[in-house]
Amino acid sequence: VRERGAAWRKAMTQIQEVSKDAAGDALKNKQMTGWVMTKGEDCDKIILTIAFYCLYQRVKAEVFANDTEYVQALKAHHAVMQWAMKCKQNIDTDFCCHMDHALDDMSKMYLPH
Questions:
Q1: Among candidate residues 87, 4, 81, 88, the one with its CA nearest the CA of residue 49
Q2: What is the largest CA-CA distance in the chain?
């Protein structure tokens, strides 16, 4: 535990030094880091939910009328996963608009007609 405490202290000192160099304060950098981590975790949850629930359990070839519909469903799910990854890697809110569109396309197969 003491070793971890020393590591945390060193990290906190480094954060403070970096924030001085970045013309910001440690609290702002901490808050920014928290948001970045939260965003990344949320994007990972979306990707994992689609992989482990939707693709494993819901998107099965026998559910669709033909291979074309099956491939379209796979592409729609994959698009959401890709946009989630892009949202994780970027801070431009335009990526969120693309993600919303991809989610709308994917969700069509889950909504009643």
A1: 81
A2: 62
